[in-house]
Write a structure and sequence with these properties.
Layout: H1 2-11, H2 14-48, E1 59-62, E2 76-78, H3 80-113, H4 120-135
Antiparallel strand pairs: 1-2
Helix pairs in contact: 2-3
Membrane topology: Multi-pass membrane protein
Protein name: Large-conductance mechanosensitive channel
Family: Belongs to the MscL family.
Length: 138
């Protein structure tokens, strides 16, 4: 029974739940970025490059041979176009994360820049000093 209790305590920790939420949101964000790259960014790039579809780019090492139905040989190719698509997706994700971190840092700097109010004894001593100065002008 104690192993079940330990597992429950482990699974219900804040860190584990936060991690689970992060993984789910990260997966959803990955789908959004994939769609952004495939449906929005790559078509104009393909149009600018003369209709080239990067995902179909490949270097064929050995062409397929389907002349003999009994011994079909599959094509052997390096799909560098898919790599280009993946690289563009990475750059977009990295840039989006950069913007988010930059915004968070900017907000945290504003909070750090706000000076803390001075302690009550410092305020009282300052008032006494100012009062003494006003009574004995030099």
């Amino acid at each position: 029974m104690s192993m079940i209790k330990e597992f429950k305590e482990f699974a219900m920790r804040g860190n584990v739940i936060d991690l689970a939420v992060g993984v789910v949101i990260g997966g959803a964000f990955g789908k959004i970025v994939t769609s952004l790259v495939d449906q929005i960014i790559m078509p104009p790039i393909g149009m600018l490059t003369g209709g080239i579809d990067f995902s179909q780019m490949k270097w064929v090492l050995k062409p397929a041979d389907n002349t003999d139905p009994a011994h079909k040989i599959a094509e052997v190719a390096i799909g560098y176009g898919t790599f280009i698509n993946t690289l563009i997706q990475f750059l977009i994700i990295a840039f989006a994360i950069f913007l988010v971190v930059k915004a968070i840092n900017k907000l945290s700097k504003k909070q750090e820049a706000a000076p803390a109010p001075p302690p009550a004894d410092v305020v009282l001593l300052t008032e006494i000093r100012d009062l003494l100065k006003s009574q004995n002008p030099k």
